[in-house]
Specification:
Largest interface: A-B, 50 and 48 residues
Shape of chain A: globular
Strand order of the largest sheet of chain B: 8-1-10-9
Oligomer: heterodimer
Helix content of chain A: 55-70%
Radius of gyration of chain B: 20 Å
Number of helices of chain A: 16
Largest sheet of chain B: 4 strands, mixed
CATH architecture of chain A: Up-down Bundle
Largest sheet of chain A: none
Number of helices of chain B: 11
């Protein structure tokens, strides 16, 4: 089965994708309004917390961090798969990524934006948040460059700005197509401004390719560094359960894992909502599922390494934290986390489920639930059972305010993402055309050399529409 | 102000290891607490509330773990009360441990603060700059003793903290903290500063006894001593020396002696020593030495 139908006319690609900007299924509006309602919950919770103080989130002097930090890591992690698909697979010439990388890249950008909000939500004095940035000032006061939190701020800032740039640059030729096909109105003005006068000349294409490749190369180390640094928040501290050398690779694997699972979820939703069945095809889904399965196994390995190194490390405090995770008050969550992270992905091993949409939808949500729990299980148990026995506190639970903000963050992400998909083409038109062209050329060659029997090939149809490019 | 300025003055900005590269001359404030003398009366804690404008958060917030006791009295029982033979209060009295910020020389809280709101002073106190704190709470997360306290609410304006007229008793030498900042024991830095200034005006160093912390002053059994560790005449210095506890070591003679005993070695060296510091093996180099309890009966 082929990744994509090789005789799609180029004009049809334009038409199908442009249609997604105007004419989604009704489900789109349902999702959008649910997302807005969720954001409402979060905004309400945040206002309450801002006015009254952090105490309403039911953290205390033992549990100083809670769901905000856990969910922050979750959203940072979510952002990694976009870069994986758009940059790493681009360099590896895996062309099956082409119909799906645009929304993955958008996912990167918006999940980073969501993660950034959690930094603000978490702070006791959010109105002084700019203290954490190294801005020039007359008093000679700088942030503390030894602090992993500061590295965090810088890494996220860099990654976010690079991701936005990457997303935008990759979209320019498509924006020009939108511009050329729109009736006059605000959309036309928007696309005209954003397409930067793109005409598709040879020189423009050459510069475009070089720029795109450069940013892709720049983005890959950034993606690895940003989650390594988030891991350093824990690994560089001195607390039992956090002070583990393997955390950076473990976090990066976890990030790719939850990101890939999220791509499966969004793939299934977008495919239905925007009628992208011809572009987001099942063979492509199968490839993502296999990739996710591989990453899931890497994560499982690193997860077991973490337990093993703690268990055999002879640090009694760390060991106690691990035991507490398994049998203490967090045990249900910890076991669910391990089940969702390690056992559930095994379903993806079976061929018949690799393209089974309802099963994959459920699995991808379960995987992400597991990955969210993983982050929580890294943050919370260390507080409840740290070094100092007098401060052990096993009965502390996040309040509804915390849950409300975490819940609303999913709405916020969905809102941004859905608006993006309605305003900008979420399937890369020019790259799908390239993919169709290259694939059909390859097939033609095979046929010419007699290695493949002709089967309904219609290459003329392709060439006739090249002008639309 | 430029980045080059920052890079050139890096050594002024941060010290690599406070124990090694700051000689602490002429002052290094330190404490020793005799657990044998401590009767767990909580006078120190009350004195600290009065001296440092600590908000009294009330029953409900206390139950949520929002209490602000910079100096707290911890209670421990010898045996696990859940097992047979273990006795609970009141059959068995508790052992007490007064716990406050240990003013670590290599403080885990200092390096992790993203804005540099907590720093080491040249006289060895781990200072907290309330105006600079943005409330990331990383310091508390990384504190092995969990002795930092966060302002979870805006206590100065919360009605049950200092009811009308009660705000008249606030100490004018200590700032009242608003919501969202971290705070902790300062070794009564306001008193230390006054003593240092007075001594400077008279052209001398601070004598032992010139400055007392609030907890020390209130302690009925004089379990707490506070003073300048560099000054050979100070009580703290003499106590640390007698117990062979050294600031820049991560294991003291007493620990080595105990290890010897366990390993079948002799008890000759350091067998009668009582001085120890909590979590020395984590190498925060705390400035508070505790003297082990020797009396048989609990209070």
């Amino acid at each position: 089965m082929k990744d994509i139908c090789e005789d799609i006319a180029w004009a049809k690609i334009n038409k199908d994708v442009l249609k997604s900007l105007e004419n989604p299924r009704k489900l789109y509006w349902v999702i959008l309004f649910v997302a807005i309602a969720m954001v409402g919950v979060a905004v309400g919770s945040e206002i309450y917390q801002y006015m009254d103080g952090m105490g309403v989130s039911n953290k205390n002097n033992t549990h100083v961090w809670g769901l905000y930090i856990a969910t922050f890591i979750f959203w940072i992690g979510m952002s990694h798969s976009g870069t994986l698909l758009s940059a790493i697979l681009h360099l590896m010439h895996a062309d099956w990524r082409k119909p799906i990388y645009r929304f993955a890249e958008a996912m990167t950008t918006f999940s980073l934006m969501t993660a950034g909000l959690f930094v603000a939500v978490h702070l006791g004095r959010v109105w002084q948040i700019y203290y954490a940035l190294p801005y020039p000032n007359g008093r000679g006061i700088w942030p503390n460059f030894q602090s992993p939190l500061l590295w965090d701020a810088m890494a996220i800032f860099t990654y976010l700005s690079s991701s936005i740039l990457f997303l935008y640059v990759g979209m320019i030729p498509d924006l020009a197509i939108c511009r050329d096909n729109m009736n006059p109105g605000w959309r036309k003005k928007l696309y005209t401004a954003f397409s930067l006068g793109w005409e598709g000349t040879d020189r423009q294409w050459r510069n475009f390719r070089v720029t795109y490749l450069t940013i892709a190369c720049f983005l890959i180390p950034l993606a690895v560094s940003v989650h390594s640094i988030v891991a350093s928040d824990f690994a560089m501290s001195q607390q039992p359960g956090w002070h583990i050398t393997s955390f950076p690779p473990y976090f990066v694997a976890g990030a790719l894992y939850s990101g890939c699972a999220a791509i499966i979820t969004l793939f299934i939703i977008l495919r239905y909502v925007f009628r992208f069945e011809e572009y987001m095809t099942l063979p492509i889904l199968k490839k993502i599922v296999r990739l996710t399965f591989a990453i899931a196994m890497v994560w499982t390995y690193l997860n077991l390494i973490e337990y093993a190194s703690v268990w055999y490390g002879h640090d009694q405090a760390s060991k106690d934290v691990l035991i507490q995770k398994a049998i203490g008050p967090y045990a249900p969550f910890w076991w669910t986390m391990n089940f969702c992270g390690t056992i559930v992905p095994l379903i993806m091993f079976f061929k018949r489920f690799q393209t089974h949409i309802p099963v994959l939808f459920a699995v991808s949500l379960l995987l992400n639930m597991g990955m969210w729990l993983e982050r929580w299980m890294i943050v919370a148990p260390t507080f409840s059972h740290g070094y100092y026995p007098w401060t052990w506190d096993h009965d502390q639970w996040p309040s509804l305010v915390q849950w409300g903000i975490v819940f609303g963050s999913f709405g916020w992400f969905t809102l941004l993402f859905m608006v993006f998909c309605k305003v900008f083409p979420s399937v890369s038109m020019y790259e799908v055309k390239e993919m169709v062209y290259h694939r059909s050329q390859a097939t033609k060659k095979l046929v010419a050399s007699g290695k493949l029997a002709t089967a309904g090939l219609n290459a003329d149809n392709l060439n006739a529409d090249r002008g639309a490019h | 102000m430029s980045v080059s300025n920052l890079l050139e003055n890096w050594s002024d900005f941060r010290h690599t290891h406070p124990v090694d590269d700051v000689p602490h001359n002429p002052y290094k404030w330190a404490m020793s607490i005799d657990l044998d003398a401590c009767s767990g009366c909580n006078a120190c804690s009350v004195a600290c509330y009065a001296e440092n404008n600590l908000p009294v958060v009330g029953k409900e917030k206390y139950a949520h773990g929002h209490s602000m006791h910079w100096m707290r009295i911890e209670r421990y029982w010898d045996e696990d009360i859940s097992t047979e033979g273990g006795r609970d209060f009141p059959d068995q009295g508790a052992q007490f441990l007064p716990m406050m910020c240990q003013q670590c020389e290599a403080a885990p809280c200092e390096t992790v603060c993203p804005v540099g709101a907590t720093n080491h002073t040249p006289d060895g106190i781990n200072s907290q700059i309330y105006n600079r704190c943005i409330g990331s709470r990383y310091c508390e997360a990384n504190c092995p003793y969990k002795v930092r306290y966060f302002n979870w609410y805006d206590y100065p304006t919360t009605d049950n903290v200092w009811p009308a007229e009660m705000n008249q008793q606030l100490n004018p030498d200590v700032s009242v903290r608003g919501k969202g900042v971290m705070e902790k024991c300062t070794f009564c830095i306001q008193r230390v500063t006054v003593a240092k200034n007075n001594a400077k005006n008279e052209g001398r160093l601070v004598h032992d006894g010139d400055v007392q912390t609030a907890c020390q002053q209130a302690c009925p059994t004089s379990a707490i001593s506070f003073g300048n560790l560099v000054d050979p005449k100070s009580k703290v210095h003499r106590q640390w020396q007698a117990q062979q506890v050294e600031l820049n070591k991560d294991a003291q003679t007493k620990d080595k002696a105990e290890n010897n005993e366990e390993g079948g070695g002799s008890k000759e060296e350091g067998g009668s020593l009582r001085g120890y510091r909590i979590f020395e093996e984590l190498r925060p180099y705390p400035s508070v030495m505790y003297l082990e309890r020797v009396r048989e009966s609990a209070v």
